[in-house]
Specification:
The chain is mainly α. Helices cover 54% and strands 7% of the residues. The protein starts with a helix and ends with a helix.
């Protein structure tokens, strides 16, 4: 399904607080079978979500670039890791991470929301939005952040809340 940003923003405004509260409860007291439930919900979410109609993750967020990512991507561009970092990244002292200097991501093609370095993209991008990561409770703080940017995360939380809370 194509993402309707106006509708998505309204839903986020309306549900953000209750979804964050639900995730906090889930984090403190995860139900038995949480991973199995997440796997089932994940299939439904991706049947209803078209990432290429959105691209919010690349437009509004930045991945964390690991040392491996920097080495792999800089090699692709025939640059040294230091040249790559100087051109495109900034160091976030607070989070101790390398991140994009600007948004949207310099590797995003805005015409079709496709990544120009998809096959060598950062691991953080490849795993996004981290819906079915094992140990799920370790990623709940990430979901709390992502519900306002990622329609897939929003749908996952919406579906999980309906299943768990009734």
């Amino acid at each position: 399904m194509i993402v309707n940003f106006r509708s998505f923003k309204q839903k986020v405004r309306y549900h953000k607080k209750s979804f964050k509260s639900f995730l906090t409860k889930l984090e403190k007291n995860p139900p038995k079978g949480l991973h199995k439930l997440l796997d089932e919900v994940d299939k439904e979410v991706w049947a209803e979500t078209d990432c290429l109609s959105c691209g919010n993750c690349c437009k509004k967020m930045t991945p964390t670039f690991s040392v491996k990512d920097i080495k792999r991507i800089s090699t692709h561009f025939e640059m040294t890791p230091d040249e790559f970092k100087a051109k495109w990244l900034r160091y976030d002292k607070k989070d101790d991470d390398w991140q994009n200097k600007k948004q949207p991501c310099q590797f995003l093609n805005l015409a079709d929301n496709k990544c120009s370095i998809y096959s060598i993209r950062p691991a953080d991008c490849a795993g996004f939005p981290h819906l079915t990561k094992k140990k799920a409770v370790d990623y709940i703080h990430i979901h709390k952040q992502n519900i306002q940017y990622c329609p897939a995360t929003f749908k996952m939380v919406e579906k999980m809340k309906a299943l768990i809370m009734g």
